[in-house]
């Protein structure tokens, strides 16, 4: 028998990006917008709100990769005609997979939100830099992305955080920062 969905995610995603199994289970059971879909080819965990979708984790199973499955999953979400958001590790020269993931999302029409700095905190209190990528059926202001990510951070990432991280999480205004075009910080959300 193969690995269960959580074990597969945990073996692929860095520890600092993973939620605890119990937090996933509570989110899936208690949050009306949080879902998991698993097939023989992939696992996707996402939150679907009225105006947008947040893809929390997308994992194409190793024996299926490079066969267009991930693109098909993204196309299915795009058919809902809502803004789609996801978090991506910044490019790291020491980890070739980071560039592969970025190219995969760009190939599928996603763009990096250039005006938002996003720095989460790991379970041990270290800074975790992430980039926000998005796709939208219509043009939008990146402030809409900032507002949606604030909701995601509060409702999904901070879901029962006192129970699972055993310490309070940072406030969204300390994690999501609006930048001017020259890259300087101008407004915390």
Summarize the structure.
The chain has 7 helices and 9 strands; from the N terminus they run H-H-E-E-E-H-E-H-E-E-E-H-H-H-E-E.
Poorly predicted segments? none
Which descriptor suits the 3D outline? globular
**How many H/I helices?**
7
Terminal CA distance: 46 Å
Number of separate strands: 9
Helix content: 25-40%
Work out the strand percent: 25-35%
> Mind summarizing the main beta sheet?
9 strands, mixed
Q: In terms of structural class, how would the helical and strand content be classed?
A: alpha+beta
Strand-helix topology:
Layout: H1 5-12, H2 21-30, E1 34-38, E2 42-48, E3 52-60, H3 69-78, E4 83-88, H4 96-107, E5 111-112, E6 116-121, E7 127-135, H5 142-157, H6 161-164, H7 172-175, E8 176-179, E9 185-188
Parallel strand pairs: 3-4
Antiparallel strand pairs: 1-2, 2-3, 4-7, 5-7, 6-7, 6-8, 8-9
């Amino acid at each position: 028998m193969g690995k269960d969905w959580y074990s597969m995610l945990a073996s692929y995603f860095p520890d600092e990006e993973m939620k605890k199994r119990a937090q996933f289970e509570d989110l899936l059971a208690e949050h009306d917008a949080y879902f998991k879909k698993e097939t023989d080819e992939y696992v996707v965990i996402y939150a679907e709100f009225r105006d947008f979708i947040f893809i929390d984790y997308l994992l194409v199973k190793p024996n299926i990769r490079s066969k267009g499955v991930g693109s098909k999953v993204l196309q299915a979400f795009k058919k809902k005609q809502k803004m789609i958001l996801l978090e991506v590790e910044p490019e790291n020269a020491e980890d070739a997979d980071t560039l592969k993931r970025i190219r995969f999302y760009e190939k599928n029409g996603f763009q990096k939100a250039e005006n938002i700095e996003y720095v989460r905190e790991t379970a041990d209190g270290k800074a975790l830099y992430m980039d926000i990528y998005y796709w939208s059926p219509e043009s939008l202001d990146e402030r809409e992305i900032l507002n949606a990510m604030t909701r995601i951070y509060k409702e999904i990432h901070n879901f029962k955080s006192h129970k699972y991280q055993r310490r309070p999480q940072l406030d969204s205004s300390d994690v999501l920062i609006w930048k001017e075009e020259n890259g300087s910080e101008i407004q915390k959300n």
